[in-house]
Amino acid sequence: MVPENINTLGDELEKQELDAPGGIPPPQVYAKLLAIYLYRNDLCNAKYLWKRIPPSSKSSYPELNQIWEVGKAMWQRDLPAVYSTIQNTPWSENIVNIMKALHEEVQKRATELVGRAYSSLSVDTFSALVGVRPEEAVKVAAQQHWQVDNGLVIPTRPVISTPPIASSEDQLYKLTDFVSFLEN
After folding, report:
1. Is the keyword Nucleus assigned to this protein (predicted)?
2. What domains can be seen in the chain, in order of their start residue?
3. Deepest of 144, 153, 166, 180, by most Cβ within 10 A of its Cβ?
């Protein structure tokens, strides 16, 4: 669902904003750029963009306010509000694909966070964190190969590969070798 060129699109929109006559592009440019910042989880740039959007654009294009509602919920880490705002707002063709991709990206991030942060949690809590009904939350947990037992989701911790750490003697030997090489 991710628009394939979302990163290049974001760069183009930033350029359009800079090149716009009077420094004020059409509200549709602001809407797409704000949605892309949220998709990238670049909340600081989203907030700065929101502050520099002229009030006239905000009032003439109400969809900007709806996108910013999603941004505020993301800023406050209120995932249920993020999901409900995205799902309950009729988005224009201008940004509907970006908002769908944002929804999926937030779900993916939330699922990864749950996998790292929880040893177990209730199905209801998990469903709120990933923005689906409890029946669907059980399916999401199964897709992650997590256990669901007596109303609890039990995530399996992701395996984090750590690079082998060389001993201090090995590091000193390599450093000495390198310095010797440089001196020659």
Report:
1. yes
2. 3-106 (no CATH), 118-177 (1.10.10)
3. 153
Count helices and strands in the chain by DSSP H and E runs: 10, 3
Number of Cβ within a 10 Å radius of residue 158: 10
Do the strands 121-122 and 152-154 form a parallel or antiparallel pair, or are they unpaired? antiparallel
Among residues of the chain, what percentage have pLDDT more than 90? 58
How confident is the model over 83-95, as pLDDT tens digits? 999 999 999 998 9
pLDDT in tens, 90-111: 999 989 999 999 999 999 999 9
8 A C-beta contact, residue 130 and residue 110? yes
- Please give the distance of CA 160 from its chain centroid, rounded to a whole number: 21
Residue 40 CA to residue 137 CA, distance in Å, equals 24
Which residues pair with residue 152 across a beta bridge?
122, 149
Task: State the distance between the two ends of the chain, measured CA to CA, in whole angstroms.
Answer: 57
Question: Tokens in use for 105?
Answer: 């990206």
Beta bridge partners of 148: 153
Tell which residue, 83, 78, 71, 69, has the closest CA to residue 133: 83
Show contacts of 57-63: CB within 8 Å, 24+ apart: 57/24, 57/27, 57/30, 58/27, 60/27, 61/27, 61/28, 61/30, 61/31, 63/27, 63/31, 63/89, 63/91, 63/92, 63/94, 63/95
